[in-house]
Design brief:
The structure holds 2 protein chains of 2 kinds. Chain A is 39% helix and 15% strand. The N and C termini of chain A lie far apart (62 Å). By secondary structure, chain A is an alpha/beta fold. Chain B is mostly helical. Chain B has 17 helices and no strands. In chain B, α11 crosses α12. The chains are: A alpha/beta, B mainly alpha. Chains A and B meet through α1, β2, β4 and α4 of A and α4, α8, α11 and α16 of B.
Chain lengths: 338, 447
């Protein structure tokens, strides 16, 4: 019996070990021919498979963008659904090459978990949802309100901080599970519902008539969500980081999935460098020179990804807000390619 | 005397025709009288119970049938509904069964399900002959076929320890290595038997069978049948639930029998090892086992070496289940009177023959309720794999309820009702079949 188990384990290790870490993640990914990307399996707009099993979402599309940069083929991604507890181990143990799963960039994670965050794909933060009929247009008018939230999360602490610093009395109605919180809110047991804004938009969809509810403009905490890679592999880190920058730069330069082919011949030196007609920027990071062109051609620029997955025209209907480009009133800013 | 005596006038000559029973004691009324309203206390209980049933059944029926939405293409159909949203279950049903298994490859899963039914149903019906052949096929050929069909097979072993200068990596190197290891094992067996002076003929042939079996397994799994490989991370729904449950049950039973025998063994090492194993696994909750397998294990492995997550969960579940089953089976072993052991010994049977022919059949029959109880709880425990990111039926349903296309107040509840129905069907079927087996095997003892 022991022998049998040992052989099975050895056999499985041989199969699994085929992808054993070698020179570096970029080389491994190229050799394997597919990018392993850890994603959220059930967050609307960020990562979730539909009824056909097709993945969609902002985080998912970022994986596709990285695959495009490497292979010029956005389908060369293997999506690994991960929950919050196992995501970091999966990255550390090499089960995935890239973690693109609404993970908040914090100092402790950056310093002690052996991760590096490649940037911010979505600036999230805690917000409030109220009934439109309540006639409130700002969180500052919520004095004395009953607020529904989940127990034992930082959400509850942020809530306390916010109301205390604005000297407003309030009452917490807390529940163990998200579903209970939503039910209590729907049943009118509280005036406001608080959690991360992206979560609020997703939860709003589950209400009987989402249009009767609104998300207040105040964001009371900082939750920058971004993709992460293993520490100590600078080359791979650079590839992931610049894929994100390429998405942002493309939007700034007005390059879209549709027009990039005609803009390819543009005289604008910035665009020339972007599409790889001028300079050797791609090969400098271990990719082909038209890597950025491929990314935009295959998946689109950051604005397109945002609009397609979470933007105002989708069911989630999230406004660009902080996630707009710096030139349009947001804080999304990417270093130039030069 | 008799010839002179006239029939006494008071003796009746015909039998009185049967009269119907009093109307109040037969039919529905009679049944109700004796069973439901036999005393004032029973009457009160009956009325209370009926009221309770009506009180909880009416809303359930209203929600699941009367007010339910049966057709529709997206959340618009269900957003305002006060009843279940069956349209969503209908749209998602394929995913509940197959998970994200690629749609063009789903016929493979269908074949696996079909084979399971074809092999299991005759196995479960006592009258069908060829039980032994059936069992052997079900426990050897079927898992192998299911593995190849579900994963796509074609593992393409390349061997691992011979230097590439001697034999290039590939199936040949793997075969040579396998032959080397097998030869070494057999040699070691021979050496040990020579050292101890005990004949090793029997165990030698046993090991040879195991090695041969392994060779067949490697041959079949390594052969490329031209099937598209499907990663286990794409499996989901009922498929994962059944894979985890069935593998857990099948793998744990023999292990449990071994552990139960080991725990009652007179050899201190075997006994201590069995006790340690059982107590260790019973001392931790399943959720910890899964978490350990999924989150901690990769940290202990060398960089880049990862096991398949489903495989990790399967091993964890099987070992965990084996520890519980072992204790159930030990109960059965202890219930067998000493006379049975002694009688078997008096016949001149060896240990394994004694166990196989006399003790275990009786012991296992005694503990059928316990074994089935464990299996049913295992079937339900499969839902825990959701915490390590595997999508069993329940996990798949929970994930789908978040889909923006279908999200509505009743979507989640409908999903849970559907899950409850499926789980109930499986668990109830198992329990009924166990009761049937128990009655059948118990015939000799009934009076």
């Amino acid at each position: 019996m022991k022998k049998l188990i040992a052989s099975i384990v050895a056999g499985a290790a041989m199969v699994a070990g085929a992808s054993a870490a070698g020179a570096g993640t970029l080389e491994d990914v190229k050799a394997r021919g597919v990018l392993q990307c850890g994603v959220n399996p059930s967050l609307i707009g960020f990562g979730a498979p539909d009824e056909k099993g097709e993945w969609s979402g902002l985080d998912v599309d970022f994986c596709r963008a990285v695959a495009s940069a490497i292979f010029n083929d956005p389908t060369k991604v293997k999506f690994v659904p991960l929950n919050a507890k196992e995501r970091f181990t999966a990255l550390q143990s090499g089960e995935i090459d890239l973690l693109s799963r609404n993970t908040t960039w914090t100092m402790s994670r950056d310093s002690s978990l052996g991760l590096m965050f490649a940037g911010v794909t979505y600036y999230d933060g805690q917000g409030f949802m109220v009934r439109k009929s309540l006639g409130v247009s700002s969180a500052l008018e919520l004095s004395g309100a009953k607020v529904c939230t989940q127990t034992g999360t930082t959400t509850e602490l942020n809530l306390a901080d916010y109301f205390r610093s604005h000297n407003m009395p309030y009452e917490v109605v807390a529940f163990e599970k998200n579903e209970e919180v939503l039910q209590a809110y729907e049943a009118g047991r509280c005036d406001a519902y608080t959690t991360d804004a992206s979560g609020l938009y997703a939860e709003r969809l589950k209400l009987q008539s989402p249009d009767e509810h609104m998300i207040l403009p105040e964001i009371i905490s900082k939750e920058p969500l971004g993709p992460a890679v293993r520490q100590g592999d600078d080359k791979w880190f650079t590839v992931v980081k610049w894929t994100l920058f390429a998405l942002l730069n493309a939007e700034e330069l007005g390059l879209t999935k549709a027009n990039i082919d005609e803009k390819k011949t543009s005289d604008n030196p910035e665009i020339k460098r972007f599409v790889g007609v001028e300079g050797d920027f791609g090969s400098a990071i271990g990719l082909t020179n038209d890597w950025a062109y491929n990314v935009i051609k295959d998946v689109g620029n950051y604005g397109e990804l945002f609009d397609a997955n979470v933007g105002p025209s989708t069911k989630l209907g999230i406004a660009r807000g902080l996630n707009n480009l710096w030139s349009k009133g947001g804080i999304q800013y990417a270093p130039p390619i030069r | 005397m008799s010839d002179t005596a006239a029939p006494a006038s008071y003796v009746r000559e015909q039998i009185i025709a049967e009269r119907p029973a009093p109307p109040s004691t037969v039919g529905a009324v009679g049944w109700a009288r004796t069973n439901l309203f036999s005393s004032p206390f029973n009457t009160v209980l009956t009325i209370l119970a009926a009221a309770f049933i009506v009180w909880c059944l009416v809303p359930v029926i209203r929600f699941t049938i009367v007010d339910a939405v049966w057709t529709g293409d997206d959340r618009a159909a269900c957003a305002q509904a006060t009843g279940a949203c069956w349209a969503y279950v209908k749209a998602y049903l394929p995913q509940f069964i197959y998970g994200r298994y690629p749609i063009p490859e789903r016929w493979r899963v269908d074949i696996v399900f079909l084979l399971l039914v074809l092999m299991l149903v005759p196995m479960l019906i006592p009258r069908v002959p060829w039980k032994r052949l059936n069992a052997i096929l079900l426990l050897t050929a079927y898992p192998l076929a299911a593995f190849v069909l579900l994963t796509g097979g074609g593992l393409g072993y390349r061997g691992s320890f011979l230097p590439a200068e001697i034999v290039a990596p590939g199936p040949l190197r793997f075969a040579i290595e396998f032959a080397l290891v097998a030869g070494a094992v057999l040699l070691a067996m021979g050496f040990v038997s020579w050292l101890t002076g005990s004949p090793a003929a029997q165990s030698g042939s046993g090991i040879a069978v195991v090695i041969g079996g392994l060779a067949v397994v490697f041959l079949v799994t390594g052969f490329d049948f031209g099937l598209v490989p499907v990663e286990t991370s794409n499996w989901g729904g009922l498929l994962v639930t059944l894979v985890v449950a069935v593998t857990g049950m099948v793998a744990s039973l023999p292990l449990a029998v071994g552990l139960a025998l080991g725990r009652r063994s007179s050899m201190p090492v075997v006994r201590t090892a069995s006790i340690a194993f059982i107590e260790f696994w019973r001392g931790v909750p399943l959720i910890t086992v899964l978490f350990m397998a999924s989150v901690m294990l990769p940290l202990f492995l060398p960089d880049g070496v990862t096991f398949d997550k489903l495989l990790r969960a399967l091993v964890g579940v099987a070992l965990f289940e084996a520890a519980y089953l072992a204790e159930v089976i030990r109960g059965g072993l202890q219930a067998i009177p000493r006379g049975q052991y002694e009688g078997a010994m008096a016949l001149g049977l060896g240990f394994w023959q004694r166990m196989r022919l006399v003790i275990l059949p009786q012991a296992l029959r005694l503990v059928i309720p316990g074994i089935v109880g464990s299996f049913i709880s295992l079937f339900k425990d499969t839902t825990l794999v959701a915490i390590i990111g595997l999508f069993d039926l329940l996990g798949q349903i929970q994930a789908s309820a978040n889909d923006a296309k279908w999200a509505s107040p009743v979507t989640g509840i409908t999903g849970y009702i559907f899950a409850a129905m499926v789980f109930w069907a499986f668990c109830f079927a198992m329990s009924r079949y166990a009761a049937f087996t128990e009655r059948r095997l118990d015939r000799g003892r009934r009076r």
